[in-house]
Design brief:
With 346 residues, the protein is α/β, with parallel strands linked by helices. It folds into 2 domains: 160 residues, 3-Layer(aba) Sandwich (Rossmann fold), CATH 3.40.50; 147 residues, no CATH class. 40% of the residues lie in helices and 12% in strands. A 7-stranded mixed β-sheet has the order 3-2-1-4-5-7-6. Helix 3 links the parallel strand 1 and strand 2. About 3% of the residues have low confidence.
Length: 346
């Protein structure tokens, strides 16, 4: 791989559609670009892809990227933007999605009656999915990604733990009909499609099931185990997860006000299990250069993580990065004032 043009990669990544996602790494992109370029290599795994921005950065830097997440909607986003090299949604495609329904489905209207969106917006989601179901492969991935981002932008704070408008600050995103959101979000995803010249992959898997070898770089951004509260991604983003598959094979907890999905266990989310989960993950990818981002307000602490890495790596660097998360706007969110660490194990 030739030496990548960092400036060009950062410029390309700067327009990647922004999903308000817990722990997203948009602000870390310049630091990560520098680290990835220092390491070099040709192949990279983004094992916890989340918003998809780091996978897209790696693609922009010329890597052959394998992108993975244990949720479905992040894997759809990376299929649309990292795996997809040339396909766009045409103007006719977009208008077809926003046009008359292709069937009589009404699951969203029935199941989420009175929740999250207006009746017109809920009807649009059913109608849009009836038309998206007619699309295939990369076009469908772009359309689902745009629909997910539209729903996230329309919901206050982008999370689905609340059903009222307590965080309605009057901004345009909360007023725009979902059909118009979809048109704008589809245009955003179309804008970032490009051909990197190498074949990339996207998975939806538990990290422990991934092949351990074949990557020059393995980037790890696991769910944080906070000392208080929780980081349950299903609780916060259950609607987006369900929407990405139109709730196929998803079990809704009918006794919950938010109609959330059943929680999926991950050992990274709990103080009692995360240390061993990290150790096993470092062991799994010991033959690759490991880059891990982790927060000072998470468990375990930086010293423990560095010690775990040294069990498998002879050269471990810890680089603190001043960073504030974009997630959360409430005045008492002091946890936003944290240090982000980049661990590099060679």
């Amino acid at each position: 791989m030739t030496t990548p043009d960092i400036s060009a990669a950062l410029e390309r990544t700067s327009v990647f559609p922004r999903l308000r996602y817990m722990g997203s790494k948009y602000k870390l992109v310049p630091h990560l670009a520098k680290v990835f370029t220092e390491i070099g290599g040709r192949t990279a795994l983004d094992a916890f892809s989340g918003s998809g921005v780091v996978s897209y950065l790696l693609k922009s830097l010329g890597y052959r990227v394998s992108s993975n997440d244990f949720l479905n909607f992040p894997s759809v986003i990376t299929r649309a933007t990292v795996v997809n090299q040339t396909v766009l949604l045409t103007k006719d495609d977009i208008e077809t999605v926003c046009g008359p329904a292709a069937d009589d489905r009404d699951f969203i209207r029935r199941t989420f009656d009175g929740l999250y969106f207006t009746a017109e917006d809920r009807e649009f989601l059913d109608t849009a999915w009836s038309n998206i179901a007619q699309l295939t492969d990369d076009k469908q991935a772009i359309a689902i990604s745009a629909l997910v981002l539209a729903a996230a932008r329309k919901q206050p704070r982008g999370v689905f733990t609340i059903t009222d408008l307590r965080y309605d600050d009057g901004r345009r995103d909360l007023r725009l009909p979902l059909s118009e959101h979809f048109r704008e979000r589809a245009a955003e995803y179309n804008k970032v499609v490009f051909n990197s010249g190498v074949q990339n992959r996207a998975f939806r898997s538990d990290v422990s099931t991934l092949e351990p070898g074949g990557y020059d770089i393995v980037y790890l951004d696991p769910p944080y185990a906070p000392p208080r509260d929780d980081n349950d991604y299903i609780k916060r983003y259950h609607f987006l997860e369900g929407l990405s598959v139109y709730w196929k094979d998803q079990k809704i907890m009918e006794n919950t006000k938010t109609k959330k999905l059943e929680k999926r266990f991950t050992p990274f989310a709990y103080k009692r299990t995360i240390t061993e989960a990290l150790r096993q993950t470092f062991k799994q990818f010991k033959d690759s250069t490991i880059v891990l981002s982790y927060s000072s307000n998470a468990v375990p602490d930086a010293g423990t993580i560095a010690g775990l890495l040294r069990e498998f790596k002879g050269d471990v660097q810890v680089r603190p990065v001043d960073h504030k998360y974009s997630f959360g706007t409430h005045a008492t969110a002091q946890r936003r004032d944290v240090s982000e660490y980049l661990f590099i194990g060679r």
